[in-house]
Structures are given as structure tokens and as C-alpha cells.
Specification:
With 375 residues, this protein is α/β, with parallel strands linked by helices. It contains 7 helices and 19 strands. Mean pLDDT is 86; it is low at 171-177.
């Protein structure tokens, strides 16, 4: 009789808990994913926080939290993940009533890009694991991985050449590598601007102020087409890094900078257009826009994309062309532009090896090559 009673009680309990979990397992369950920072540089490591809360009396003996993100984000612990076209994560939690669990994932970010986690799937089970229930939640976790910085020594030939051209045209440009004074540090200043000797004397952070120019605006036109048989992605990425480096240097000199590229923004699906930035604080907007450039989506040819900007609009004081592509179509556009503007430009051309440098007929003295590796 006791056995029958126990069996009956157990059966009733089993059915009740199934009904209870079927209706209430996901009530009061909150899941949040967030990155430690909004923006990091390619090659850096960042933390992803996964917070799960059970705000009800019912315990969750098994809760699977599933989400997917780019396979270019490399988790330090990959036991709970699977990599195919994306990285699929599956974390298991057991949470008591009114408890919160936080897990911290370390992620390596080797590749420039914009990465988001936009959905979370939850899979719950009852106390006896006899059934699984599913639910979905939204997520707004996003991360900008900005282009890796190039050493200033790699950019110096291009910077000196550009400033030399600007000096001739503005008649007011002093040596960009000299300074006109010292001021207090502000949050948007870079570490390399800090004057450590003045900082030590005053016990407050001080930064060098570079000589300003009388230049109104410099425009950077970036061509990310690749006519090669084998895609040279490393040179395209190097072009984006050079663009960021040049923009930062020019803005720090007081030169307004605008940037255009024929690659599309992965969010807006429009070609890159960055209006004139007037201050070094504008670098955040530039970094984010460059991080969102999508090199995998088909893009318009350089000539088709920039016909109006090149030959119809009022020309700015100076134009920087930035492209590793040396296809005849592109070279001919630069030759025509040079004729119409009396050589009012310079072409920064990334190459894999210094031995690839050569003078293009009709563009003599207009090209600065930057090798992928220091010569």
C-alpha cells in the first residue's frame, strides 16, 4: 500500500512540475550580454559579460543560453562552442530562485570589423529533464574592432610628402614635427602627445601642441577594389590602417579631413562618406566608420563611384588618393585628375615588398609607396 501511495504521489508530483515548468520556466528570467568596451583595436583582447538572472521562486536546474557571433571573435574557452560560418555558443546554467550568475568570457579580436550579438535563445528543462522549452530574447551587444595602428615611422614618408605639398600650396605650413606650445591633457588626446618632462615638473598631464596650418581641408579618397587574380586582403586592410593614421596626424595639425571610399558600410549598405572632421576628437567617428567597412560585398569601380567628386565638384585644397590597386583604369583616372588640377594630389600606394615600387608614366613624383613590412 505504501509503495502504491509513493508511486501515486510521485506521478502526481511529476505531472504537476511538468505543468508548472511549462507555464512559468521563463518568467523572471533575464539574460544580458555586454562587451567590456565599445571599441578596441585589432589584436586586442576584450571581455564579454554574460549575466543570467532567475527572479522567481522556481529553480532552474538546467538553462541553456545559446547565441551566435562572428567566427573572427576568438573565445579563450571554446569547449562550449562550435565554429562553422559563425561561432555558435551554448552555455549551461543551473540557477536557484532569486539568484544571478555572471560569467566572463575573454575574447581575442584579431580582425577589423563591426561585430554584434543580436539574439539569444534559451532552452529550459523541468526538474526531471523530461521536456525542453524554448524562448528567445533580443540582444544589443556590439563591438567595433578598429584598424591596427601603423608605427609612425612607417607613415612618416607619406606624412612628410603630404605636408610638403600642403606647404607649397598654403604658404603657411610650418614643420609638422615641431611644436608651438604645451597645454593641459584632455580625454581625446593620444598618449604619444604627452610631454612627460613637463608632466613631471607640474605633476599634471601636459601635451604638446603642434603647429597649425592654414589648410582648409584635405580629402582622402580610398579605393578598395582589387583587380588581382588573387585577392590581396592584407593590402586592403593596410590601406584602411593608413587612412586612420593619416587622418589622425592631419587632424592633430589642425587640418580638416574628409574621407570617401568605394567600399560599403556593413550597416547602412552605402559607400563610406565621412564629412569634414575639424578636431582630433572626430577620430572616434572615423574609427567606427572604418571598422564597419565591408570588403566582401561587391563594390562599384572607383571611377563610377567618384565621377562627380573628382571632376564635377569644386576641388578641395588637396586630395590624397589611397589605393593598392594599380590597374590601368585607376591609373588613367589619376592622370586625368592631375591634368585638371595641376597635380593637386598625392597617391599613397601600399605594396607587399619595396621591390614592387615603380614610377607610373605620367604620375612621376606623385606616388608614395608604403611597403607591407619595413624595408
Amino acid at each position: 500500500m505504501v509503495i502504491i501511495f509513493v508511486a501515486l504521489f510521485g506521478g502526481v508530483f511529476f505531472l504537476l512540475q511538468r505543468i508548472l515548468y511549462a507555464h512559468f520556466w521563463n518568467k523572471g528570467v533575464q539574460v544580458q550580454l555586454s562587451f567590456e568596451k565599445e571599441m578596441v583595436q585589432a589584436g586586442d583582447e576584450i571581455k564579454l559579460f554574460e549575466v543570467v538572472e532567475n527572479d522567481k521562486k522556481l529553480p532552474l536546474s538546467s538553462l541553456k543560453v545559446k547565441f551566435q557571433c562572428s567566427r573572427h571573435l576568438i573565445f579563450s574557452d571554446r569547449e562550449n562552442g562550435n565554429v562553422t560560418d559563425q561561432y555558435y555558443r551554448n552555455d549551461l546554467f543551473s540557477i536557484m530562485p532569486y539568484h544571478r550568475v555572471t560569467r566572463t568570457h575573454r575574447i581575442l579580436c584579431p580582425k577589423r570589423g563591426y561585430y554584434g550579438i543580436h539574439g539569444i535563445d534559451l532552452v529550459g528543462a523541468d526538474l526531471f529533464f523530461s521536456q525542453e522549452m524554448m524562448d528567445s530574447r533580443e540582444s544589443d551587444a556590439s563591438l567595433y574592432v578598429i584598424p591596427p595602428a601603423l608605427p609612425i615611422a612607417r607613415l612618416e614618408p607619406a606624412i612628410r610628402r603630404i605636408n610638403g605639398e600642403l606647404a607649397v600650396r598654403s604658404h603657411a605650413l610650418k614643420d609638422p614635427f615641431t611644436y608651438r606650445g604645451i597645454r593641459e591633457y584632455e580625454p581625446f588626446d593620444e598618449m604619444k602627445q604627452i610631454n612627460w618632462k613637463a608632466t613631471a615638473k607640474t605633476d599634471e598631464l601636459k601635451v604638446n601642441v603642434r603647429e597649425h596650418t592654414a589648410v582648409s581641408c584635405v580629402r582622402i579618397l580610398m579605393n578598395l577594389e582589387d583587380h588581382g587574380i588573387l585577392r590581396r586582403e592584407e593590402l586592403l586592410e593596410m590601406s584602411i590602417s593608413i587612412c586612420a593614421g593619416l587622418a589622425g596626424e592631419l587632424l592633430s595639425q589642425g587640418v580638416r579631413v574628409s574621407i570617401l571610399a568605394n567600399a560599403k558600410d556593413c550597416l547602412t549598405r552605402q559607400e563610406l562618406r565621412i564629412d569634414e572632421q575639424t578636431h582630433i576628437a572626430g577620430m572616434d567617428a572615423i574609427y567606427k566608420a572604418l571598422a564597419r567597412l565591408d570588403l566582401d560585398t561587391p563594390m562599384k569601380s572607383f571611377g563610377e563611384c567618384f565621377q562627380r567628386e573628382l571632376f564635377e565638384d569644386k576641388q578641395p585644397l588637396f586630395t590624397i588618393f589611397l589605393s593598392p590597386d594599380r590597374h590601368s583604369d585607376y591609373v588613367n583616372i589619376l592622370k586625368e585628375y592631375g591634368i585638371r588640377t595641376n597635380g593637386n594630389f598625392v597617391w599613397i600606394c601600399p605594396v607587399k615588398k619595396s621591390s614592387e615600387e615603380k614610377e607610373e608614366e605620367g604620375l612621376e613624383g606623385r606616388i608614395v609607396y608604403i611597403a607591407e613590412e619595413a624595408s
